[in-house]
Amino acid sequence: MPVSCAAYGCNSRNTLESRQQGVTFHRFPLSNKPLLQEWRLAMKRSKHNGELWMPSPYQRICSLHFEKQSFDETGQTRRLRSNAVPSIFNFPDHFEKLHRKQKGRKRKYVREDSDYDVCNGAEEVGEEGGGVAVDGGNNEDDEDDVVLPSVSKDVLQNPHLEHSYSTPDIDSLKRKLQIMEKKLLQKMKELRAAKERERRPRETCGTLLRELSRKKIVTITQQLMEKLQQYEDIPVELFDKSPTEYSTHQKSFVLMLQLHDSSVYRYIKNHKLPFPSLRMLRSWLKSTNDGPGINASVLQLLLNKRLANPYEYTCACLVIGALSLRQHAAYDVCQKKVVGLIDYGNGPEAYSQNVATQTLIFMLVGINGHWKAPIAYFLTNSLTPGAQMELVLHALHELMDNGFDIKSITLDGCETNIQ
User: Fold this and answer.
1) By the 8 A CB rule, do 342 and 352 touch?
2) Rounded to whole angstroms, how far apart are CA atoms 95 and 149?
């Protein structure tokens, strides 16, 4: 970062352009205290508390603030003379001070409460404020003068406010004390509330299910707890949001809970958490491409054909079958996700890290027409009969909502699928 000049109103920076223009930057004489004091007074800078500004070892002042005779240019390098003092500044009018020569008096720095100037130089104090010059004598050959800082009108009317260490009146002290007591009580109340929140255990999906099982409100099997173990750290307050704002993890938990135990899902929805409706869950099970789930594109194609020929494309039979898969997971570069895992649709990208071993296929076959179409498939792994039944119900509701008349359901291995 380029070094900037520390003088008031100077925008010079140590850049290539400034060096080409012959501008040099010089350190403050920190080791020479008398000379440093002259530089500090010439700079006319003060701190907020009124003390004279002290430069740091990293601050610089540019050559534009020195007279030409202040430099030694006899050698190859342009050097600043040892007794040089900056004298060229662009101060505002209220920074200009009186130059009265008075003999036998030293220049004195008077501490001020002003936060912008050390030596203000007006002769009188008016309504707009200004500096006050104090003569030390009548001898005009004196080397220095005493310059007092600006004094506000309030200080002149109330002399006890002149110094920051002066004691204010009792009423103002009482008011300040009351304000500080109110702030203290508010902070103590906030602290107690924060400690109470830290002590209060954070309720998660796992603690909610265990609490319902402990109180025997609903029956939660060990198998269900194992399937939902990966979701037990989800805070329950996240379900206060709208279902459209659910994260992938939240959608996975709600769908897995509804598919594997709809009674627990209904109880939590009615008494504990604002779970989404079944229609919303079916929208999460839909797929707009060739991925797992209820294929919305195929349904739309059948709807278009039914408009042209309602007799052939209204009555149909739902055929459900299962195919075994070789356990294999791989990264699909086109879809940019891992395929081969358990997947139920277009909501979450991957409901589980378990590899799928079976695919459940739903085929719609026409009764009055010679047609059949795969409307859905799901990648599963040891899916329970209850979960299969919930998937069949979701598919039936979706078909009936679209106006199809399902006359029968045909299952592959019917005896093993009957509860």
Assistant:
1) yes
2) 10
Half-sphere exposure (CA, 13 Å, Cβ side) for 165? Answer: 3
Query: Phi and psi for 171 in degrees, rounded to 5?
Result: -65, -45
Instruction: Locate all alpha helices (DSSP H) within 107-233, ordered by sequence.
Output: 153-157, 170-199, 205-214, 222-227
Q: Which two tokens stand for residue 115?
A: 């936060």
- What number of residues does the chain have? 419
Q: What is the pLDDT of residues 311-343, one digit of tens each?
A: 989 999 999 988 888 888 787 788 777 777 777
Distance CA 11, CA 196 (A): 54
**Paired residues of 323 in beta bridges:** 359
Residue 48 contacts residue 69 (beta carbons within 8 Å): no
Residue 307's SS3 state is helix
| Residues forming beta bridges with residue 338, ordered by sequence position | 331
Q: Considering the entire predicted model, what is its pTM?
A: 0.49
Long-range Cβ contacts of 32-39 (<8 Å, 24+ apart)? 35/82, 35/83, 35/85, 38/85, 39/85, 39/86
- Percent of the chain clearing pLDDT 90 (strictly above): 13
Round to whole Å and give the CA distance between 138 and 148: 18
